[in-house]
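PROTEIN DESIGN WORKSHEET
SECTION A - STRUCTURE
LENGTH: 339
C-ALPHA CELLS:
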C-alpha cells in the first residue's frame, strides 16, 4: 500500500480486498442462528443471480451478526406481531389512520397539485394508487407523491424525541410495495392486515432508534432535515419486513437506503420542496428494498462503519460525547414517543 495515500483511503482499499462481501458474496443454505456470524456455501458473481436465487436460504444471515447493523437486521427478520406490546400496536394503528387522513387532505393542496401534475406528465400509468387523484403510477412515483401529500400541511405525526415524521415516509413506501407485489408483473401477494401493521411498527421503531442514536434534535440544529435522514433506513427496514427479505438482503436494502439519506432544513423557507423531501426518502428506500430483493448488494455494516458509515458521517459536527450512540436494547420500544 503506497504510504502517501491518506490512512482512511488505505483502510478502504484494504477493506475492499479483504471483505467477504463485495461484488462476489457467499450465500448460505443453512438455517439462521441469530447470534451466528458464519455463513457457509460458495461464492457467486453478479451474473449468477438465477442460480443463487434457486439455492440461497430465505434467512441468510447479515455480514456480521454481532455488529450493530447485523443486530438490527436480525431483529427486523425475527420480530413477530405477538412480540409487540398491545399499546404499541394500538398506537401504530392510530398513527396510520392519521397518516391516511393527512394524505387525503394534502392531495389537493396547491403545492401538491403542482407536484402531481409534474410527475404525472412524465410517468406512465402503473399499479400503485395515488391518493386523491384516481390515478395509478409505478411504485416509486406513487410513493413520492403520497409522501409529499402526507407532509403537505405538516399536520402529520411527530416523534418529539427522535424527532421525525414517520407516517409520511413509512406508509407511502409500504402501500406502494404492497400494491406492486400484489398487482405487479410478479404477482406475489405478500401482505395482509397483520403483516402490514407489523411492517409499519418495524419502520416506526427503526427510525426512532436511528434518531436517538444521533441525539435527535441535534440533527435539526446542524441544518439537516432529520426525517429525511432517519427515514430511508427505517422505510427500507419496513419494506424488507413486508417482503420477507432475509437478514442479508435487509442489510443490503438498509445500506443502499442509508447512502441516499439527505435533506436540508433550508428547504423550510421559500420552497415547496420541504414537503417532497420525505417523498425523496420514501422513493429511495422503496427503490433500495426492491433492488435488494433482486440480489443487488448494498453497504454492509452501514451503521457502524467508522469511515463513511451512516452514524460516523452524520455524527460529524456533534457536540455530544460520544458523537453518536451504537448501543441497542431490544427490550425497550422507542416509538412510544410518536403522536
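SECTION B - SEQUENCE
RESIDUE ASSIGNMENT:
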Amino acid at each position: 500500500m503506497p504510504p502517501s495515500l491518506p490512512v482512511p483511503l488505505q483502510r478502504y482499499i484494504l477493506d475492499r480486498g479483504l471483505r467477504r462481501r463485495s461484488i462476489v458474496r457467499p450465500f448460505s443454505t443453512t438455517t439462521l442462528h441469530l447470534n451466528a456470524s458464519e455463513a457457509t456455501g460458495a461464492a457467486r458473481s453478479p451474473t449468477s443471480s438465477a442460480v443463487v436465487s434457486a439455492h440461497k436460504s430465505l434467512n441468510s444471515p447479515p455480514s456480521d451478526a454481532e455488529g450493530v447493523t447485523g443486530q438490527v437486521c436480525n431483529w427486523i427478520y425475527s420480530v413477530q406481531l405477538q412480540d409487540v406490546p398491545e399499546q404499541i400496536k394500538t398506537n401504530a394503528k392510530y398513527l396510520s389512520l392519521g397518516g391516511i387522513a393527512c394524505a387525503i387532505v394534502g392531495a389537493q393542496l396547491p403545492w401538491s397539485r403542482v407536484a402531481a401534475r409534474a410527475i404525472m406528465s412524465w410517468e406512465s400509468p402503473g399499479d400503485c394508487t395515488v391518493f386523491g387523484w384516481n390515478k395509478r403510477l409505478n411504485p416509486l412515483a406513487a410513493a413520492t407523491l403520497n409522501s409529499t401529500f402526507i407532509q403537505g400541511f405538516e399536520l402529520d405525526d411527530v416523534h418529539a424525541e427522535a424527532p421525525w415524521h414517520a407516517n409520511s415516509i413509512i406508509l407511502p413506501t409500504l402501500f406502494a410495495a404492497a400494491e406492486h407485489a400484489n398487482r405487479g408483473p410478479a404477482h406475489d401477494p405478500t401482505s395482509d392486515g397483520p403483516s402490514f401493521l407489523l411492517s409499519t411498527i418495524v419502520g416506526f421503531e427503526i427510525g426512532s432508534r436511528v434518531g436517538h442514536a444521533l441525539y435527535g434534535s441535534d440533527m435539526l440544529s446542524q441544518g439537516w432535515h432529520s426525517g429525511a435522514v432517519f427515514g430511508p433506513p427505517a422505510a427500507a427496514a419496513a419494506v424488507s419486513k413486508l417482503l420477507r427479505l432475509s437478514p442479508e438482503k435487509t442489510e443490503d436494502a438498509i445500506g443502499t437506503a442509508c447512502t441516499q439519506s439527505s435533506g436540508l432544513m433550508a428547504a423550510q423557507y421559500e420552497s415547496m420542496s420541504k414537503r417532497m423531501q420525505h417523498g425523496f426518502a420514501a422513493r429511495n428506500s422503496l427503490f433500495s428494498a426492491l433492488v435488494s430483493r433482486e440480489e443487488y448488494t448494498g453497504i454492509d455494516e452501514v451503521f457502524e462503519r467508522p469511515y463513511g458509515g451512516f452514524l460516523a458521517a452524520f455524527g460529524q459536527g456533534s457536540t455530544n460525547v460520544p458523537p453518536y450512540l451504537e448501543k441497542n436494547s431490544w427490550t425497550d420500544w422507542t416509538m412510544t414517543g410518536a403522536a
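SECTION C - NOTES
The mean pLDDT is 82.
Strands lie at 25-26, 43-44, 125-130, 135-137.
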